[in-house]
Amino acid sequence: MTKTTSIPVKSITSAADMVMEDRVHKSLYSDPEIFEEELDKVFNHTWVWLAHESEIPDSGSYKTAKIGRQPVIVVRDRKGNIHVLQNRCRHRGATVCEKKHGKTKAFTCPYHGWGYGLDGSLRALPKPEEYENILDKAEFGLNSLRFETYQGMIFATLDDSIESLDSFLGGAKKWMDLFMKQSGGYPVQVLGDHRFRFPGNWKIQLENTTDAYHFPIVHKSFISSIDDQTAEVFDFLDGDGFVEDLGNGHSVMVMIPDLVDLEANLDDPIPERFQPLADELAKEGKSEAEIKRLVRAVGGSGFNLNLFPNVSCSMAFFRNLVPISVDETEIHHVAIGGKGAPAAFNQKRMRLHEHFQGPMGFGTPDDGEAWERVQHGSKAGTDGWIMVNRGMSRLSTSEDGNVKGAVCSETGMRAAYQQYKKMMAAEEKE
Amino acid sequence: MSENQLYTRVSEFLSLEADLLDHKAYDEWLALWEKSGLYIVPVEHDVTDFANHLNVAYDDDEMRQLRIARLSNGEAVSTVGAENTVRTLSRIRILEASDELVTVRCAYCLYENNKNGVRAFPANVEFILKPTEDSFLIQQKVARVMKSNEHLTTVSYLF
């Protein structure tokens, strides 16, 4: 086994070299040149999550997002078809939309008034006579990007040559199917999101979603704020949970095995903390079967599914990371519920989300503090390694044939970093 | 009570509320609240149906008490390093007043001394106050914090 301090930093010549099986070099958090290389080699050549279909429910509904640093618009056209468009006017390059989301009939560039349809086509521009015989409108629509969806999640890519989304997600699809069971029998609906930035590298957050080890330490104050029965459920480090490497950088961390399938075990007793919800639903006249289904689903799934590189299906919400610079990252915690589900159900989901997530949650600020400390600590010394070797000597094979470690192993981090290494080792791409 | 007297009493109350938070007199702060009161930091500034929207914070009595415990008990790493704060408020305007409720809006800024420097969180804050014999109880406090609808940093304080 390699000793932790024995690898001289001088032997490293590239970012790919900085990822070993059991450790990564801290320069990956702080070197601006590596960050630029990541935007090209990782974000420009893979599937990047942008939105859930429920965020653009109607014709004209849109959401702005980013692939790496590149602004895009996800929009539904008049016929209900989805488009992912580069957010850049084809005339002089201004963005045509700066709102987070909304509904529109068209996108009009604020600079010179070029107007684009919901499908990105250039429809009209002021004083067109000056373009007579020199501009074909059909060639000057907003650039349209390749996108594919799975379980309502919309991913896009700047690289037309990469494998299909279906193939890229591979073993993660089974877990996405399970994750989408948490809306109590109703279609999954985005209910809003929390957005915040922290002064640290994006990969620190990528690691965290598959890090159960920190939970009882960093989230002690959250655990103190919940009832004993729930605290017992969250005391999962000694339980039967596990982490599985799902391939292509994806991994799943099962913390609460009993909550993997939210459509199973519907006859389990109702947890104390959800009894008031059950009572309220009963008062509204909901059937016993529906109450059981809703109450079982309301707290979310018992696992975090980490999808490389920028999103996770994390217990009860989508966690989306947006790299801003080498030492700044924006995080979106996207709350989900059920479309058409009883208001009490969606309200409870939002209140639970507010309790832990977001800038003022009882969990997120403490995560943020730990991530910030990692970024700060990465400035110490020159020969600094970040260890991701936890659980390496006790791996097994899952029933799906994947590498599997204990719930608090760093198996998911190693999975993500090996995909990162593969992409960063690729020859310079266009 | 004359308009001037009401304005003076409301201003004094708002200053008291901010002062208690700045000086971490949390038990006294909790005592300012009507039990059914709600402390809300919405994400979107135009929202009024807070219960049916996602908020940054939506604290009823129980959550207020839990939040104060979190700010005080030393278990949360993000609050342990939290140093002093300064809250300033101005532009106080009474929007509605009756014997039962007074609605007041003010400009509010929380300055925090963070290890990265002093950060400012400007906000429009609206209180619904319930007059008592000699003061008020807070029925609702809504802090519409600048950038909450875009992105914030993490926050270790109450607005």
Automatic annotation (TrEMBL), chain A:
<dbReference type="Pfam" id="PF00848">
    <property type="entry name" value="Ring_hydroxyl_A"/>
</dbReference>
<dbReference type="InterPro" id="IPR036922">
    <property type="entry name" value="Rieske_2Fe-2S_sf"/>
</dbReference>
<dbReference type="InterPro" id="IPR001663">
    <property type="entry name" value="Rng_hydr_dOase-A"/>
</dbReference>
<keyword id="KW-0560">Oxidoreductase</keyword>
<dbReference type="InterPro" id="IPR017941">
    <property type="entry name" value="Rieske_2Fe-2S"/>
</dbReference>
<dbReference type="GO" id="GO:0051537">
    <property type="term" value="F:2 iron, 2 sulfur cluster binding"/>
</dbReference>
<dbReference type="GO" id="GO:0005506">
    <property type="term" value="F:iron ion binding"/>
</dbReference>
<dbReference type="Pfam" id="PF00355">
    <property type="entry name" value="Rieske"/>
</dbReference>
<dbReference type="InterPro" id="IPR015879">
    <property type="entry name" value="Ring_hydroxy_dOase_asu_C_dom"/>
</dbReference>
<protein>
    <submittedName>
        <fullName>Rieske (2Fe-2S) protein</fullName>
    </submittedName>
</protein>
<feature type="domain" description="Rieske">
    <location>
        <begin position="47"/>
        <end position="156"/>
    </location>
</feature>
<keyword id="KW-0411">Iron-sulfur</keyword>
<keyword id="KW-0001">2Fe-2S</keyword>
<dbReference type="GO" id="GO:0016491">
    <property type="term" value="F:oxidoreductase activity"/>
</dbReference>
<keyword id="KW-0408">Iron</keyword>
<keyword id="KW-0479">Metal-binding</keyword>
TrEMBL record, chain B:
<keyword id="KW-0560">Oxidoreductase</keyword>
<dbReference type="Pfam" id="PF00866">
    <property type="entry name" value="Ring_hydroxyl_B"/>
</dbReference>
<dbReference type="InterPro" id="IPR032710">
    <property type="entry name" value="NTF2-like_dom_sf"/>
</dbReference>
<keyword id="KW-0223">Dioxygenase</keyword>
<dbReference type="GO" id="GO:0019380">
    <property type="term" value="P:3-phenylpropionate catabolic process"/>
</dbReference>
<protein>
    <recommendedName>
        <fullName>Aromatic-ring-hydroxylating dioxygenase subunit beta</fullName>
    </recommendedName>
</protein>
<comment type="similarity">
    <text>Belongs to the bacterial ring-hydroxylating dioxygenase beta subunit family.</text>
</comment>
<dbReference type="InterPro" id="IPR000391">
    <property type="entry name" value="Rng_hydr_dOase-bsu"/>
</dbReference>
<keyword id="KW-0058">Aromatic hydrocarbons catabolism</keyword>
<comment type="pathway">
    <text>Aromatic compound metabolism.</text>
</comment>
<dbReference type="GO" id="GO:0051213">
    <property type="term" value="F:dioxygenase activity"/>
</dbReference>
